[in-house]
Amino acid sequence: MEKVANEKQINFSFDEIYELEKLREKKISGSLKHKEKFLKLGIIEKVGKTSGQKFILAHRYYSYQEKPGVYTRIKGFNRESKKELILEHIKREGSGRKEDFLDVFPDLKPQDIANLLYELKMEGKIKHEGARRSGRWVIARVS
């Protein structure tokens, strides 16, 4: 933060410093009073979209602390990576239930998992077999 303050020649209020310190401790936050200023200065980054949007300290902070792995873990995987993990699971196990993927992605809501599965279905990569609630997802066989 000192580096940013020196580069941009700005001062931070006690409230702003305190808010950033809370974010550093918690790693992720859903609401910040000074988020617009922090985003503009590149101190924080958005993670996620719409109602699930959160804020984390910027990559620069974790690079400076020599902890880029922490940044990657906090930021999480992008949508395509999540879909690839789902496909890998189904290929390895032969099938998968929505509940299995809730275990894989504990930070996602059931509807988020359903959306990922639906996208994979629309892409022709997987299909659902069995009853709606008790069925399983399997790899779609290309004819």
Summarize the SSE layout with pairings.
Blueprint: H1 2-8, H2 14-26, H3 35-41, E1 44-47, E2 54-57, H4 59-64, H5 68-75, H6 79-93, H7 98-104, H8 110-122, E3 126-129, E4 136-139
Antiparallel strand pairs: 1-2, 3-4
Helix pairs in contact: 7-8
Give keywords.
single chain; mainly alpha; two-stranded antiparallel sheet; two-stranded antiparallel ribbon; 53% helix
Structural account:
The protein is mainly α and 143 residues long. It has two domains: 2-75, no CATH class; 79-139, Arc Repressor Mutant, subunit A (Orthogonal Bundle), CATH 1.10.10.10. The protein is built from eight helices and four strands. It has helices at residues 2-8, 14-26, 35-41, 59-64, 68-75, 79-93, 98-104, 110-122; strands at 44-47, 54-57, 126-129, 136-139. The strands form two sheets. A two-stranded antiparallel sheet has the order 1-2. A hairpin with a 6-residue loop joins strand 3 and strand 4. Helix 7 crosses helix 8. The longest helix is centred in the middle third of the chain and has 15 residues, at 79-93. It starts with a helix and ends with a strand. The mean pLDDT is 85.
Number of helices: 8
Strand order of the largest sheet: 1-2
> Helices and strands: which structural class?
mainly alpha
Oligomer type? single chain
Biggest beta sheet attributes: 2 strands, antiparallel
pLDDT averaged over residues: 85
Number of domains: 2
Strand content: 5-15%
What's a concise summary of this model?
The N and C termini lie far apart (57 Å). Helix 7 crosses helix 8.
